Amino acid sequence: MSGATWLPPFVDHHVHLQLVEADRLRGSGLAGVVDLGGNPAVVARSARGATAAADQGAPYVRFAGAFLAAPGGYPSGRAWCPDGAVREVRSPGDAEEAVAEQLSYGVSVVKVTLNADAGPVLDAGTLAAVVTAAHVGGVPVVAHVEGGGMTALALVAGVDALAHTPWTEQVDDGLVRRAARVGQRWISTLAIHAHDEDAQRSAVDNLGRFHDAGGRVLYGTDLGNGDLPLGVNRDEIAALVLAGLDEDAVVAALTDPWPGTLHPDGLATRILGVPPDDLAQLPAWLVSAEVGRRH
Ligand SMILES: [Zn+2]
Protein backbone atom coordinates (compact mmCIF):
# COMPACT_ATOMS: atom_id res chain seq x y z
CA MET A 1 0.00 0.00 0.00
CA SER A 2 1.39 3.41 -0.89
CA GLY A 3 0.88 6.79 0.62
CA ALA A 4 0.52 7.85 4.21
CA THR A 5 -2.10 9.31 6.50
CA TRP A 6 -1.21 12.42 8.52
CA LEU A 7 -2.86 13.08 11.87
CA PRO A 8 -2.23 15.54 14.71
CA PRO A 9 0.44 14.54 17.30
CA PHE A 10 -0.31 11.58 19.59
CA VAL A 11 -0.05 12.11 23.35
CA ASP A 12 -0.09 9.71 26.29
CA HIS A 13 -1.92 11.82 28.88
CA HIS A 14 -0.84 9.72 31.87
CA VAL A 15 2.80 8.70 32.35
CA HIS A 16 5.39 8.80 35.13
CA LEU A 17 8.83 9.81 33.86
CA GLN A 18 10.54 8.82 37.10
CA LEU A 19 9.44 5.26 36.37
CA VAL A 20 10.02 5.33 32.58
CA GLU A 21 12.53 7.82 31.19
CA ALA A 22 11.46 10.01 28.28
CA ASP A 23 14.59 8.86 26.44
CA ARG A 24 13.12 5.37 26.17
CA LEU A 25 10.17 6.79 24.23
CA ARG A 26 12.32 8.12 21.39
CA GLY A 27 11.24 6.71 18.10
CA SER A 28 7.83 5.64 19.43
CA GLY A 29 4.63 7.04 17.95
CA LEU A 30 4.21 9.36 20.93
CA ALA A 31 4.89 13.02 20.16
CA GLY A 32 4.08 14.08 23.70
CA VAL A 33 3.53 12.81 27.23
CA VAL A 34 1.91 14.20 30.37
CA ASP A 35 3.59 13.26 33.65
CA LEU A 36 0.92 12.86 36.31
CA GLY A 37 2.97 12.76 39.49
CA GLY A 38 6.51 12.64 40.73
CA ASN A 39 9.18 14.67 42.48
CA PRO A 40 8.61 18.06 40.81
CA ALA A 41 12.31 19.00 40.69
CA VAL A 42 13.21 15.69 39.02
CA VAL A 43 10.31 15.75 36.58
CA ALA A 44 10.98 19.39 35.65
CA ARG A 45 14.57 18.37 34.83
CA SER A 46 13.31 15.48 32.64
CA ALA A 47 10.99 17.88 30.84
CA ARG A 48 13.87 20.26 30.10
CA GLY A 49 16.01 17.34 28.91
CA ALA A 50 13.25 16.13 26.59
CA THR A 51 12.81 19.61 25.15
CA ALA A 52 16.56 19.80 24.47
CA ALA A 53 16.42 16.38 22.78
CA ALA A 54 13.30 17.09 20.68
CA ASP A 55 15.40 17.02 17.49
CA GLN A 56 16.49 13.47 18.36
CA GLY A 57 12.91 12.29 18.65
CA ALA A 58 12.18 12.73 22.37
CA PRO A 59 8.50 13.43 23.13
CA TYR A 60 7.50 16.82 24.49
CA VAL A 61 6.66 16.75 28.19
CA ARG A 62 3.98 18.47 30.21
CA PHE A 63 3.75 17.63 33.90
CA ALA A 64 1.77 17.92 37.12
CA GLY A 65 4.50 18.03 39.75
CA ALA A 66 3.83 16.35 43.08
CA PHE A 67 0.78 14.37 44.15
CA LEU A 68 -1.19 16.69 46.45
CA ALA A 69 -2.65 14.42 49.14
CA ALA A 70 -4.16 14.48 52.60
CA PRO A 71 -1.56 13.82 55.33
CA GLY A 72 -0.89 10.08 55.17
CA GLY A 73 -3.01 9.78 52.01
CA TYR A 74 -2.29 7.86 48.81
CA PRO A 75 0.34 7.30 47.44
CA SER A 76 2.42 7.94 50.60
CA GLY A 77 4.30 4.81 51.59
CA ARG A 78 3.86 2.98 48.25
CA ALA A 79 7.04 1.19 47.21
CA TRP A 80 7.01 2.79 43.74
CA CYS A 81 6.43 6.30 45.04
CA PRO A 82 9.64 8.38 44.61
CA ASP A 83 11.05 10.62 47.36
CA GLY A 84 9.49 14.05 47.31
CA ALA A 85 6.63 12.95 45.06
CA VAL A 86 3.89 13.55 47.65
CA ARG A 87 3.05 17.02 48.98
CA GLU A 88 0.76 16.67 51.98
CA VAL A 89 -1.86 19.40 52.18
CA ARG A 90 -3.13 20.27 55.66
CA SER A 91 -5.63 23.09 55.21
CA PRO A 92 -7.13 25.47 52.65
CA GLY A 93 -4.32 27.96 53.35
CA ASP A 94 -1.72 25.26 52.88
CA ALA A 95 -3.44 24.32 49.60
CA GLU A 96 -2.58 27.73 48.15
CA GLU A 97 1.05 27.26 49.14
CA ALA A 98 1.18 23.73 47.75
CA VAL A 99 -0.21 24.87 44.40
CA ALA A 100 2.19 27.85 44.30
CA GLU A 101 5.10 25.44 44.86
CA GLN A 102 4.01 23.31 41.89
CA LEU A 103 3.54 26.37 39.68
CA SER A 104 7.08 27.50 40.54
CA TYR A 105 8.35 24.34 38.80
CA GLY A 106 6.45 25.18 35.63
CA VAL A 107 3.63 22.64 35.88
CA SER A 108 0.84 22.58 33.31
CA VAL A 109 -1.67 20.84 35.58
CA VAL A 110 -2.07 20.09 39.31
CA LYS A 111 -2.68 16.53 40.54
CA VAL A 112 -4.66 15.59 43.64
CA THR A 113 -5.26 12.12 45.03
CA LEU A 114 -8.66 11.06 46.38
CA ASN A 115 -8.24 7.41 47.30
CA ALA A 116 -10.68 6.44 50.03
CA ASP A 117 -9.47 2.82 49.88
CA ALA A 118 -5.92 3.77 50.93
CA GLY A 119 -6.06 6.22 53.79
CA PRO A 120 -7.36 9.74 54.42
CA VAL A 121 -8.47 12.01 51.57
CA LEU A 122 -8.59 15.81 51.30
CA ASP A 123 -11.70 17.34 52.89
CA ALA A 124 -14.05 19.26 50.59
CA GLY A 125 -12.80 22.69 51.75
CA THR A 126 -9.13 21.89 51.19
CA LEU A 127 -9.89 20.28 47.83
CA ALA A 128 -11.88 23.34 46.76
CA ALA A 129 -8.94 25.56 47.77
CA VAL A 130 -6.59 23.47 45.59
CA VAL A 131 -8.95 23.83 42.62
CA THR A 132 -9.35 27.58 43.10
CA ALA A 133 -5.60 28.18 43.46
CA ALA A 134 -4.84 26.09 40.36
CA HIS A 135 -7.45 27.90 38.29
CA VAL A 136 -6.17 31.29 39.49
CA GLY A 137 -2.73 30.08 38.38
CA GLY A 138 -4.13 29.19 34.97
CA VAL A 139 -3.84 25.38 35.13
CA PRO A 140 -6.43 22.60 35.39
CA VAL A 141 -6.69 20.00 38.17
CA VAL A 142 -6.57 16.25 37.60
CA ALA A 143 -7.60 13.77 40.30
CA HIS A 144 -6.82 10.14 41.02
CA VAL A 145 -10.22 8.89 42.25
CA GLU A 146 -10.51 5.47 43.85
CA GLY A 147 -13.11 4.17 46.29
CA GLY A 148 -16.76 4.91 46.94
CA GLY A 149 -17.96 8.47 46.41
CA MET A 150 -14.65 9.83 45.14
CA THR A 151 -15.87 10.54 41.58
CA ALA A 152 -18.71 12.64 43.02
CA LEU A 153 -16.35 14.47 45.40
CA ALA A 154 -14.05 15.41 42.49
CA LEU A 155 -16.93 16.57 40.31
CA VAL A 156 -18.52 18.73 43.03
CA ALA A 157 -15.13 20.35 43.73
CA GLY A 158 -14.72 21.35 40.08
CA VAL A 159 -11.87 18.96 39.25
CA ASP A 160 -11.20 19.23 35.50
CA ALA A 161 -10.03 15.72 34.72
CA LEU A 162 -9.83 12.22 36.15
CA ALA A 163 -6.43 10.52 35.89
CA HIS A 164 -8.12 7.12 35.43
CA THR A 165 -11.55 6.06 34.27
CA PRO A 166 -13.27 5.15 37.57
CA TRP A 167 -13.08 1.39 38.11
CA THR A 168 -13.92 0.78 41.77
CA GLU A 169 -17.53 1.93 41.46
CA GLN A 170 -20.25 2.05 38.85
CA VAL A 171 -20.66 5.79 38.32
CA ASP A 172 -24.39 6.51 38.13
CA ASP A 173 -25.84 7.94 34.92
CA GLY A 174 -26.71 11.29 36.45
CA LEU A 175 -23.14 11.83 37.58
CA VAL A 176 -21.77 10.65 34.23
CA ARG A 177 -24.01 13.11 32.36
CA ARG A 178 -23.07 15.93 34.69
CA ALA A 179 -19.34 15.21 34.26
CA ALA A 180 -19.79 15.26 30.48
CA ARG A 181 -21.86 18.43 30.57
CA VAL A 182 -19.30 20.45 32.56
CA GLY A 183 -16.53 19.33 30.20
CA GLN A 184 -14.65 17.07 32.60
CA ARG A 185 -12.07 14.90 30.80
CA TRP A 186 -11.49 11.27 31.69
CA ILE A 187 -8.08 9.75 30.99
CA SER A 188 -8.75 6.20 29.90
CA THR A 189 -6.10 3.85 31.48
CA LEU A 190 -8.30 0.82 30.72
CA ALA A 191 -5.45 -1.58 29.94
CA ILE A 192 -3.93 -1.37 33.45
CA HIS A 193 -6.78 -3.70 34.47
CA ALA A 194 -5.69 -6.44 32.07
CA HIS A 195 -5.30 -8.85 35.00
CA ASP A 196 -8.53 -7.86 36.76
CA GLU A 197 -11.54 -8.66 34.61
CA ASP A 198 -14.11 -7.09 36.96
CA ALA A 199 -12.18 -3.84 37.22
CA GLN A 200 -11.76 -3.65 33.46
CA ARG A 201 -15.42 -4.40 32.77
CA SER A 202 -16.42 -1.70 35.24
CA ALA A 203 -14.03 0.88 33.73
CA VAL A 204 -15.09 0.08 30.15
CA ASP A 205 -18.76 0.43 31.16
CA ASN A 206 -18.18 3.77 32.91
CA LEU A 207 -16.14 5.15 30.01
CA GLY A 208 -18.63 3.94 27.41
CA ARG A 209 -21.49 5.76 29.14
CA PHE A 210 -19.32 8.89 29.59
CA HIS A 211 -18.47 8.86 25.87
CA ASP A 212 -22.14 8.31 24.92
CA ALA A 213 -23.06 11.34 27.05
CA GLY A 214 -20.62 13.47 25.06
CA GLY A 215 -17.77 13.30 27.59
CA ARG A 216 -14.24 14.09 26.46
CA VAL A 217 -12.01 11.01 26.63
CA LEU A 218 -8.21 11.29 26.69
CA TYR A 219 -5.91 8.41 25.76
CA GLY A 220 -3.63 7.57 28.70
CA THR A 221 -1.93 4.43 29.93
CA ASP A 222 -0.21 5.17 33.27
CA LEU A 223 3.06 4.34 31.49
CA GLY A 224 5.74 3.57 34.07
CA ASN A 225 3.22 1.72 36.25
CA GLY A 226 3.94 -1.97 35.63
CA ASP A 227 5.04 -3.57 32.42
CA LEU A 228 3.49 -1.59 29.56
CA PRO A 229 4.70 -1.22 25.96
CA LEU A 230 6.94 1.80 25.31
CA GLY A 231 4.83 3.72 22.85
CA VAL A 232 1.26 3.60 21.61
CA ASN A 233 -0.48 0.78 23.49
CA ARG A 234 -2.53 -1.57 21.33
CA ASP A 235 -4.49 -2.95 24.29
CA GLU A 236 -5.49 0.52 25.43
CA ILE A 237 -6.82 1.35 21.96
CA ALA A 238 -8.62 -1.98 21.73
CA ALA A 239 -10.28 -1.22 25.08
CA LEU A 240 -11.35 2.23 23.83
CA VAL A 241 -12.99 0.52 20.86
CA LEU A 242 -14.65 -1.91 23.26
CA ALA A 243 -16.01 1.09 25.20
CA GLY A 244 -17.72 2.25 22.00
CA LEU A 245 -15.31 4.85 20.61
CA ASP A 246 -15.14 4.91 16.81
CA GLU A 247 -12.08 5.84 14.77
CA ASP A 248 -12.64 9.60 15.02
CA ALA A 249 -13.21 9.41 18.78
CA VAL A 250 -10.08 7.30 19.33
CA VAL A 251 -8.01 9.75 17.27
CA ALA A 252 -9.51 12.67 19.23
CA ALA A 253 -8.53 10.94 22.49
CA LEU A 254 -4.95 10.46 21.21
CA THR A 255 -4.50 13.97 19.85
CA ASP A 256 -6.06 16.27 22.46
CA PRO A 257 -3.37 18.80 23.52
CA TRP A 258 -4.65 18.79 27.13
CA PRO A 259 -3.54 20.13 29.56
CA GLY A 260 -2.43 22.72 27.01
CA THR A 261 -4.61 24.16 24.30
CA LEU A 262 -2.11 23.58 21.47
CA HIS A 263 0.67 21.14 20.67
CA PRO A 264 4.18 22.53 20.12
CA ASP A 265 4.73 23.60 16.51
CA GLY A 266 6.03 21.26 13.86
CA LEU A 267 4.73 17.93 15.20
CA ALA A 268 2.40 15.49 13.48
CA THR A 269 1.69 11.77 13.22
CA ARG A 270 2.42 9.80 10.08
CA ILE A 271 0.97 6.34 9.46
CA LEU A 272 1.44 4.28 6.33
CA GLY A 273 -1.70 3.51 4.41
CA VAL A 274 -5.24 4.60 5.13
CA PRO A 275 -7.44 3.90 8.17
CA PRO A 276 -8.84 0.34 8.09
CA ASP A 277 -12.56 -0.08 7.45
CA ASP A 278 -12.78 -2.68 10.18
CA LEU A 279 -12.54 -1.20 13.71
CA ALA A 280 -10.91 -4.43 14.88
CA GLN A 281 -7.89 -3.49 12.74
CA LEU A 282 -7.68 0.05 14.14
CA PRO A 283 -5.40 -0.68 17.13
CA ALA A 284 -2.72 -2.35 14.99
CA TRP A 285 -2.86 0.45 12.43
CA LEU A 286 -2.52 3.21 15.05
CA VAL A 287 0.32 1.40 16.81
CA SER A 288 2.34 1.62 13.58
CA ALA A 289 2.34 5.44 13.88
CA GLU A 290 5.53 7.47 13.67
CA VAL A 291 6.10 11.02 14.78
CA GLY A 292 6.45 13.18 11.71
CA ARG A 293 8.33 16.44 12.10
CA ARG A 294 7.72 19.29 9.73
CA HIS A 295 10.50 21.85 9.63
ZN1 LIG B 1 -0.30 7.20 37.48
UniProtKB/TrEMBL annotation:
<dbReference type="InterPro" id="IPR051781">
    <property type="entry name" value="Metallo-dep_Hydrolase"/>
</dbReference>
<protein>
    <recommendedName>
        <fullName>Amidohydrolase</fullName>
    </recommendedName>
</protein>
<dbReference type="InterPro" id="IPR032466">
    <property type="entry name" value="Metal_Hydrolase"/>
</dbReference>
